[in-house]
Amino acid sequence: MVTTQERVGAEPDFALNPSGQFGVYVHVPFCASRCGYCDFNTYTPGELGGATPAGWLEALRSELALASQRLPGPTVDTVFVGGGTPSMLGGDGLAEVLDAVRSEFTLAPDAEVTTEANPESTSPGFFTRLRTAGYTRVSLGMQSVAPTVLRLLDRVHSPGRALDAAREAQDAGFEHVNLDLIYGSPGESDDDLHRSVDAAIGAGVDHLSAYALVVEDGTALARRVRRGEVAAPDEDVLARRYELLDTWLADAGFTWYEVSNWSKPGGECRHNLGYWNGGQWWGAGPGAHGFVGATRWWNVKHPNTYAALAEKRELPIADFEVLAPRDRHVEDVLLQIRLRSGLPTSLLDADEQARAESAVAAGLLVHDGHNLVLTDRGRLLADGVVRDLLAD
Ligand SMILES: C[S@@+](CC[C@H](N)C(=O)[O-])C[C@H]1O[C@@H](n2cnc3c(N)ncnc32)[C@H](O)[C@@H]1O
Ligand code: SF4
């Protein structure tokens, strides 16, 4: 396990490493309703305790100003506005968010600027406004086209709305559009997944993320599973569905570049590649995580606590940790092994290299130049491969 050096109540040292990619993540902590499977840091109107999007935006501006004072003016390669439901802010609200980032940081001329959006809070005018504001990429939560699956997941949009939204985004000039799918939901059939994947491909997007349904502790879904109302996702079914969707996507010209992410050439999400490749980023907004130098930190979670600290002109940090070299090594292995580009063999010590050879012999890893890459079977067992590699 990662061991960390915890420091509570003090501001961390933001010693930016000048090389590599730098990103800004902005967390929008609002949702109209909560999907039963989701444990992200997000609040429905009844949970906000008076917090408002306007108050959040003001606090965000304050955090970004403090951030830019602490950093030596890095050029921002990528911006990612996630949630929660960023599209609840509307096109004008998201334009203000990007302006807030731009007023404190210099964006690279070719910066990738993504926002997540929920299908039901989008429209052609929304996407046009995002384009004129400077967004270059949209990520839409589709999850499935099967009405029973959407119902089980508490999704409020119709099966077709995510597809229409994906087309509207492209019509507004977005070259890069992602659709998120969830597979392995109780009640989903192989055929349901096939129809979802075909529909997503047919919408003309250049990126697809597909996540196995995780029953997160503390969610409504976890309670339903505990009460025996719905079955937990079955490991064998999840593995088969992954293999199926990988085959369907490959047939349609999509290549996996991370275990849960597929794209057409040039459609990879550069912001997320930054996370996996050890890049640095400032995470702004309630509950956001950031990573600069060897320091990882995370913000206070509730929008009211966040706004109260911002009003005092304090960084809204809940806690931080400084990664020791061994922690950093574990992170690098954990993240880079998931990439199609693979894990540089040179990152591994002699014992780890010997264990990697056992994984190669077992058909879980292959050598690709100087890197080790998961095989198709290895992708299904990625967590176990990492555990075995790092076993001391
Ligand atoms: C947290 S959401 C934010 C974006 C947006 N609000 C939405 O719902 O599309 C990002 C993605 O995470 C995935 N996700 C969230 N919780 C999950 C879970 N328990 N299991 C699998 N995927 C999950 C969903 O595919 C979702 O689209
Ligand atoms: S999945 Fe998206 S819409 Fe649903 S509760 Fe989570 S963040 Fe909100």
Descriptive account of the structure:
A 9-stranded mixed sheet has the order 8-9-7-6-5-4-3-2-10, with helices on both faces. The termini are close together. The radius of gyration is 21 Å and the shape is globular. The protein is built from 14 helices and 16 strands. Helix 1 links the parallel strand 2 (22-28) and strand 3 (75-83). The model is unreliable at 1-8 (pLDDT under 50). The chain has helices at 53-70, 90-104, 124-133, 147-152, 161-171, 190-202, 220-226, 235-251, 270-276, 303-311, 325-336, 350-361, 376-380, 382-390, and strands spanning 5-7, 22-28, 75-83, 106-117, 137-143, 176-183, 207-212, 255-258, 261-263, 280-284, 289-292, 295-299, 317-322, 343-344, 365-368, 371-374. Helix 1 runs parallel beside helix 2 (90-104), helix 1 packs across helix 10 and helix 12 (350-361) packs antiparallel against helix 14. It is an alpha/beta fold. The chain folds into 2 domains: 19-276, TIM Barrel; 324-392, Arc Repressor Mutant, subunit A. It binds S-adenosylmethionine and iron/sulfur cluster.
What are its keywords?
single chain, 392 residues, alpha/beta, TIM Barrel, Arc Repressor Mutant, subunit A, 2 domains, 4-stranded antiparallel beta sheet, 16 strands, 23% strand, globular, disordered N terminus, binds S-adenosylmethionine, binds iron/sulfur cluster
| CATH fold-level name of the largest domain | TIM Barrel
Bound molecules: S-adenosylmethionine, iron/sulfur cluster
Can you tell me the number of structural domains?
2
Query: What portion of residues is helical?
Result: 25-40%
Shape-level CATH architecture of the largest domain: Alpha-Beta Barrel
Specify the number of helices.
Answer: 14
CATH superfamily of the largest domain: Aldolase class I
Give the low-confidence spans. 1-8
Q: Any idea what the radius of gyration is?
A: 21 Å
**SSE run:** EEHEHEHEHHEHEHHEEHEEEHEHEHEEHH
Mean pLDDT comes to: 95
Principal-axis shape equals globular
- Beta content comes to 15-25%
Task: Please describe the biggest sheet, giving its number of strands, its sense, and whether it closes into a barrel.
Answer: 9 strands, mixed
- The neighbouring-strand order within the major sheet is 8-9-7-6-5-4-3-2-10
CATH class categorisation of the largest domain: Alpha Beta
Secondary-structure-based class equals alpha/beta
Distance between the termini: 11 Å
Strand tally: 16
